[in-house]
Amino acid sequence: DMELLGVTGVEDKLQLDVRQTLESLHNGGIKIWMLTGDKLETATCIAKSSKLIRRNDDIYIIQQVATREECLQELNIFKRKIGACLVITGDALQICLSFYEKDLMESIIESPSVVVCRCSPTQKAIVVDLLKKYRNRKVRVCAIGDGGNDVSMIQSAYVGIGIVGKKGKQASLAAAFSINQFSYLTRLLFVHGRDSYKRFLLVDYGTVYTMFPVCSPVLDQDVPADIALLYPELYKELAKGRIYQGSVIMYVGLILFDADFIHVVSITFTALILTELLMVALAVRIIVFFETKISIELTSE
């Protein structure tokens, strides 16, 4: 017979443009896992409201697992649900990993979205380590968090991104990158990440392939070591400064340029014309080949 005096509630809104950000990540071919300490109902509701789990996606929930047989049964049922999103509690995940770690990870990695609820900070780091262990070689794991309970997960991933928010700056200080909103993730990945990756490859090409001939003279020897020891007189010419004189090299180069500039231009344009003719010939040959092949197939039909 208690009289209700008042009710308090806490509203935890999604940040701005979370749905659009997750949709962009999906379109970019990025799989998203949500590791949270919230209870199952709250985690599922957030996943649906943020469009992490889409309206038409099938959801399979693994919640109450205690024995090896129950783990095997749940795993077999989930394997038959191709393309289903998985929602699993931290306790059930820990029990399943203790019995069927490899089978479970190979199955849930293929899932479009995974939600792990009631997940402790240690379990978050374990999940990241397992993703790194059972991933494809071309896949990299990125962890994103905004609180102190996400620090271990961020530090375990290949790339850690911390969000500065109401929960403090512990995650952003422990991460490799720090952003103010979750929506900034699209620009960080699709603009800066893409440009940085391509620039790194161009720098790699420029240093390894094109700088190698320039650096190769560092290991050059005009005479073997035993010859240099046998004839000390070879050292005298170094003191006279007659080897590779800059003025002589510039003067000779200028003479050659003035004398053969017309020939160099002629040879360059001739080579360009020959290259264009070769490209036209190859294009015509390819077109004729495909036309002949299509005609033969139509005739045979």
UniProtKB/TrEMBL annotation:
Question: What EC number is given for this enzyme?
Answer: 7.6.2.1
Matching InterPro entries: HAD-like_sf, HAD_sf, P_typ_ATPase, P_typ_ATPase_c
One GO CC term on file: endosome
Chain ranges of the P-type ATPase C-terminal domain = 174-200
| A GO biological-process term | retrograde vesicle-mediated transport, Golgi to endoplasmic reticulum
The protein's location, in the record's own words, is:
Endomembrane system
Gene3D superfamilies for the chain:
HAD superfamily/HAD-like
- The source's superkingdom equals Eukaryota
Say yes or no: keyword DNA-binding present: no
Give the record's membrane topology: Multi-pass membrane protein
Cofactors (names): Mg(2+)
What GO molecular function annotation could you give as one example from this UniProt entry?
ATP binding
Transmembrane parts of this sequence: 271-290
Family matches, as NCBIfam families: ATPase_P-type
Q: What is this protein called?
A: P-type phospholipid transporter
Q: Write down the species.
A: Rotaria magnacalcarata
Lineage, highest ranks first: Eukaryota, Metazoa, Spiralia, Gnathifera, Rotifera
